[in-house]
Amino acid sequence: MEIGNRIKNLRIQKNLTQEELGERTDLSKGYISQLERDLSSPSLETFFDILEVLGCSPKDFFDEGQKEQRVVYTQDEMTSFEDEEKGYEIQWLVPESNENEMEPILLSFKEKGEFKEFPPSLAETFAYVTAGSVCVEIGLKRYYAKQGETIYYHATENHQIKNDFDGESKLLVVVTKSYL
Fold first, then answer.
1. What gap in Å lies between CA 39 and CA 119, rounded to an integer?
2. Which residue intervals of 37-81 are DSSP H helices?
3. Which residues have CB under 8 Å from 148's CB, separation 6+?
4. Residue 180 pLDDT grade (very low, low, confident, very high; cuts 50, 70, 90)
5. Closest by alpha carbon to 129, among 166, 169, 161, 164?
6. How far apart are CA 119 and CA 121, in angstroms?
7. I need a labelling partner for 108 at 20 to 30 A (CA). Which of 62, 70, 92, 150 fits?
8. Please, what are the domains in the chain?
């Protein structure tokens, strides 16, 4: 096994530069570069520090078995939650998607329904209105989208989505992971 190449792949998956990995492990960018090209071998302590930053256990690092990527998820794998008081239902389309970079959901509103308000973050939100119309409140501003329209915003202020239709509204929503 090429340890350096595996470290490099994990670093790239975590969206870290060599310099950022070095800063988080008290190593130089040059040393990280040497490790990734298998020109140097880390001590066990250094190796474990690198794996901790990369979010990988030693067992998973050395597991030669290739995990096949999940591509298709069936409807019976989806989970949902309904808040009768606030008048919305959320359906998670991919199991454990909160551990991924993106979290796709279906969001349905009853008349006058509203989703919870979220604080500012570095997340990005994409939504496609499949039925009805909604109001997106970002800070003190309001934006309106109806069936067939797309919503996209950076969540840098308090934000909330509310139904703006005399009936049910539905959206496909994809939110990126927040790194605050």
1. 45
2. 44-54, 58-62
3. 129
4. very low
5. 169
6. 6
7. 70
8. 3-62 (1.10.260.40), 75-176 (2.60.120.10)
Question: Is residue 111 within 8 Å of 168, Cβ to Cβ?
Answer: yes
Q: Which two tokens stand for residue 18?
A: 């060599």
Burial of 88 (0-12, 13-18, 19+ CB in 10 A): buried
Measured in whole angstroms, how far is the alpha carbon of residue 65 from the centre of its chain?
Answer: 26
Query: Which of 139-169 are b and which e, b meaning 16 or more Cβ less than 10 Å from the residue's Cβ?
Result: eeeeeebeeeeebeeebeeebebbbbbeeeb
pLDDT in tens, 84-117: 999 999 999 988 776 678 899 999 999 999 999 9
pLDDT at 51 over 70: yes
Q: Count of residues for the chain?
A: 180
